[in-house]
């Protein structure tokens, strides 16, 4: 799974790809460029599918990818993503697998198996007497979630929306 947290205009996320209780890789960028210059950071089965497509499958003796775009489309109902469309007033969206919702420009939001942990940590940091900026809060929140969520880990990456 994944930990993704949005704090105001910063999205922080980690890089582990799991399959069941096995770690496939701990350094995969879960950000994807979409048509129309949109950007998505995603959690769920699609992260594993995208990782498999990025491999040189001939190295493993596979004639074709085990996960095709058609199979990826079937997996979308098991995916969550934060999607930013481009433009000065373009909203940030969240995909739950069953439909879209608009996220508020400011505030905290989390996705993935560690999303709730990251949201809790972000609110604790924002409520404390520290003067952290959104970037610092988002990174620290994902780091805290990685300590308690066994399906999160690796490198923390950030995206400014």
Structural summary, described in words:
- By secondary structure, the chain is α+β, with helices and mostly antiparallel strands.
- The protein has one domain (4-160): Aminohydrolase, N-terminal nucleophile (Ntn) domain (Glutamine Phosphoribosylpyrophosphate, subunit 1, domain 1, 4-Layer Sandwich).
- It is 28% helix and 30% strand.
- The chain contains 4 helices and 11 strands.
- The strands form 3 sheets. It has a 5-stranded antiparallel sheet. The protein has a 4-stranded antiparallel sheet with strand order 10-1-2-11, with helices on one face.
- Helix 3 (115-127) packs across helix 4 (134-148).
- The longest helix is centred in the C-terminal third of the chain and has 15 residues, at 134-148.
């Amino acid at each position: 799974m994944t930990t993704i947290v949005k704090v105001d205009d910063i999205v922080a996320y980690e890089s582990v790809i799991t399959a069941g209780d096995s770690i496939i890789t701990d350094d995969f960028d879960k950000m994807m460029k979409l048509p129309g210059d949109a950007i998505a950071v995603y959690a769920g089965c699609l992260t594993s599918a995208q990782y498999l497509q990025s491999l040189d499958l001939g190295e493993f003796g596979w004639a074709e990818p085990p996960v095709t775009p058609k199979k990826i489309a079937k997996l979308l109902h098991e995916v969550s993503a934060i999607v930013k469309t481009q433009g000065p007033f373009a909203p940030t969206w969240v995909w739950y697998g069953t439909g879209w919702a608009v996220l508020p420009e400011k505030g905290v939001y989390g996705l993935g198996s560690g999303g709730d942990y990251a949201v809790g940590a972000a609110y604790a940091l924002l409520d404390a007497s520290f003067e952290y900026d959104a970037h610092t809060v988002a990174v620290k929140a994902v780091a805290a979630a990685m300590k308690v969520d066994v399906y999160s880990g690796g490198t923390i990456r950030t995206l400014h929306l």
